[in-house]
Amino acid sequence: MEAITPDVLNFLSECFRNTLLPVLEPRRQAEAKLAEAATRPNYALSVLQLVASKGVDEQIRQSAAVNFKNHVKSHWAADPDDPSKVVVVDPEKVQIKALIVTLMVDTPPKIQAQLSQALTEIGKHDFPRNWTTLLPELVVTLTNLSQANQYASVNGVLATIDSLFLKFRHEFGTNDLRLDLKYCLDIFAKPLLELFKRTAGLLDQLVTVAANANVLKGYIDSQKLCCSLFHSLCSQDLPEYYEDHLDEWMIEFKKYLTVRYAALEDTGNDGLAVVDSLRAAVCEIITLFMMKEGEVFQKYLSEFVEAVWGLLVVASNSPTREELTVTAIKFLTTVSSSVHHALFARDDVLQQICHSIVIPNVMLREEDEELFEMNYIEFIRRDMEGSDLDTRRRIACELLKGIAVNYKDKVNEKVSAQVQSLLATFSASPSSNWRHKDCAIYLVVSLATKKAGGNTISTDLIDIQSFFGNVIVPDLKDQSVDGFPMLKAGALKFFTMFRNHISKEVAMSILPDVIRFLVSESNVVHSYAASCIEKLLLVKEERGNTRFSASDVNPLLLPLMTNLFAALQKQESEENQYIMKCIVRVLGVATISRDIVLPCINGLAAILNRVCENPKNPVFNHYLFESVALLIRRACEQDNAIISSLETSLLPSLQMILTKDVSEFFPYAFQLLALLVDSYRTPLPGNYMEIFMILLMPESWKKSANVPALVQLLQAFLKKAPHELNQQGRLSNVLGIFDLLVSSRSTDEQGFYVLNTVVENVGYDVLSPFIGHIWVSLFRRLQNNRTVKFIKSLIIFMSLFLVKHGYANLSGSVNAVQPDLFRTILEDFWIPHLKLITGSIELKLCAVASARLLCESLSPSDSILWGKMLDSIVSLISRPEDVRVEEETEVPDFAEAGGYSAAFVRLHNAGRKEDDPLKEIDPKQFLVTSLTSFSARSPGTIPHIIIANVEPANQAALLQLCSSYHATIV
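Above: the chain sequence. Below: its structure as tokens.
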């Protein structure tokens, strides 16, 4: 496809025609031909010329435009991680850049949109430095189009420039970015203002009812895009040119907030939305100026506050003007917390804010009720999880918080009065005025604050105990779990948020009612009930003890678990993460008896079998596996004989995961198998040894996401059946896995876990035939591709080896690889990196092993080596971790990161307790005692070495240690 001939264009046209066919096979063949053609030179240019061919069917041209955009996105720039990727060559790029602007302007709107996106993709890589002709060409094009009054094309060009300039809003202000910004301002600042003023003049002529709505819409859209461009160009700093011409911008901005464009606004919601979109863009700009250019903006402030206020009073009563309402309130909020807060100080102003802006926006509307009923996940995400910052309900409360920064008492007084008024209106007619009660509860909850230094939520608006008893409890005690569901949800949310303030006695009296709400037909209500129970079980008293214990939960456990599992049968709650998280929390607190274990494990296994068919909610799935792990762990702790019953329910599900290749669940399945193996107190049954043999196959270890869980499972087997290692070449297979893992930066730590477990559980007589091979693998990696993480892992392994099998076996086997290699390891790696060891068990192990080396193996005649080792040991055991360890920045190994694989997620409840091989030893005391005994054999030698080779700070620390343990070095 090097030469662009008519045959080439006909070939491409036929391919794109066939990609639109409903028949699968011809469509696939066409896609395959295009994919092959895309690897040849001039492909992108050929497709662009097809797009330009006016004689070709428009659908084919549009399909080609989409293909061109996608090809540019994937192949315009080289990928350092994929050197073989086909890239558009420079001569082809030059021709494309020369064509695309003219072509974009001269095509139908749908094709124009695709070419605009393609131009933006090219601009991400080349604009402005490698495409200096683009902006001047766009400016000339804009000027010609606006003079010809072709505003559909003007707006297409403006939208393209807007997408190129958005980076000035969002990227950090580096020197390179500022240079790019200066380049754009030098070329575009003046033309943008001229276009803005010209269009403003045209708009002024159309402020009549008789104006043509389509023409008016084109002008409004153009001004909105000009506002967006102005916003981008001013986001870093106010440019000098615009500071000099700021009046010209601000006059128009104010006009757009105050003038009505009846020809559009009176045609319905669509026309009103067009004008409101421009007004919202203006509100964003004046908010930016308020935040970043307060002094410059001060002279315009009062008139803009008045204009925005007037807009809000009207817009707040309309359900369709949310974007404008949110941006307008954000502007007032920014003003309220600035040095100009006095604008909001008067009582009448605060009263009007509450009455005319806050209450209308917080009051439930029809669309809120629809969201509650039709999309409970999104409702909860906004309402409970705080992602509603850009909704009118939340932003209205943020305005009150902003004013309260300087006028807290006044705000509390006004809002408290509003809350009481809303509740009085509800009481007058509860069935028709229930939204007023919801509004009152929402105000209280949204304006609550966290206490400094803690997580406790508090409020000065109400007396929490009284409000809870009089307003919230009646809804919670209502015997109809399905009546007024939004009020029930609000009550549960209040109980959840203020749970620390509700006494245990009161909470326990309400808990059975909350359990009832788990079977509500409303997805939001039973989700909030589950979340309330889950959060209650986390409440802690002042001394840190949990408020609710097993004795509190046990009497309610049967109805609680029954209702939780029943909730998972409700439509659209089959994978409700709030329910499953509550199950995890309850299982962690309650006493787990056989009567509870078996129904629960059967229920969870049934759910697991169902989600295996189509895993789609990773949060739910994680809590599902956590609940299974928790059930296994706690049940086996109380009655180990129950493990066979657990296996009967669970093993078929785990087998399904492995046989059906549900790869997302592999890491979870391996962790659960490891937990089952760990739970056995008797010899492992034969079916587990079959799993062990599968585990030793190299194919099992190919997916990196599975490795940590596989290592955990392998460790469990090695601990439970170490004697099996010395049969049928299994130890050789295990060490083959170690070789594979330790050779890679991403898995070397896992390789050491395997190796440490082998050394800890296998005698030296079994290990000795393989030890030379182990050292060669480790030292090869140390020589060719070492990292600090690897060196630390090596020190830990060698320390464990010394503690388990002695210095003679350690040094002898290392020196068998190369004479005197052990001393080299000590000098170059062990001693310099010893102080970097972290983790309490690892620290103890390395400190004790190093002390044994010092006092049992190294000679004080080698005073420098001896002294440096002592210095490192003292640093390790006396200095805080954050002082002696610097964060290491590992260089990612790109070769190992190819392709997508599901990430490993560790199950908290399937984690193994780390074994401490030196349980009874205090490392500090061990060092001091060893030094005391050693110095007694050679009096006077050690103090001289310490003075000459140990840092003064460490000398003082060692002296302090000796004093603490009543020891003396002589």
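The two ends are 87 Å apart (CA to CA).
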